[in-house]
TrEMBL record:
Protein name: DUF971 domain-containing protein
Key words, A-Z: Iron, Metal-binding
Location of the region described as Disordered in the Swiss-Prot/TrEMBL record: 49-70
A Pfam family per the record: GBBH-like_N
Length: 120
């Protein structure tokens, strides 16, 4: 039986989020990737539209530049709400989604990582 996945550590690192999971895997996802994959209804609708060549960035988007989180708050036990620097705050990222969107970090660079307990 596979235990539920939990983040044991979340770290704002460079231009993204580093997550250490309770299964010993560390993953990394860029904030930009998270922002582009915002799971809220209006963003999903936005992504399903055909690309609009005349789409103009909103003043907020221009002012904000690269997506950065203002805050990341746990929602219940299974998700995080990210408030972005462009003011967008309706995206709730489930742990499952965070795991899917992020890429495992190479195991070679585990200098300061805590080793998971060895399974028998
Ligand atoms: Zn959204």
């Amino acid at each position: 039986m596979v235990a539920e996945l939990w983040p044991v550590a979340l770290r704002n690192e460079g231009d993204g989020l580093r997550i250490e999971w309770n299964d010993g895997v560390a993953t990394f996802v860029r904030w930009q990737t998270l922002r582009e994959n915002c799971p809220c209804a209006s963003c999903i609708e936005e992504r399903q539209r055909p690309p609009d060549p005349f789409r103009v960035l909103s003043p907020q988007e221009v002012a904000a530049g690269t997506p950065r989180p203002r805050s990341m708050t746990p929602v219940g036990r299974y998700a995080y709400q990210i408030v972005w620097n462009d003011g967008h705050a309706t995206g709730i990222y489930t742990l499952e989604r965070l795991r899917q969107l992020s890429q495992p970090l190479s195991m070679s660079s585990k200098s300061d990582a805590v080793s998971p307990p060895e399974s028998p």
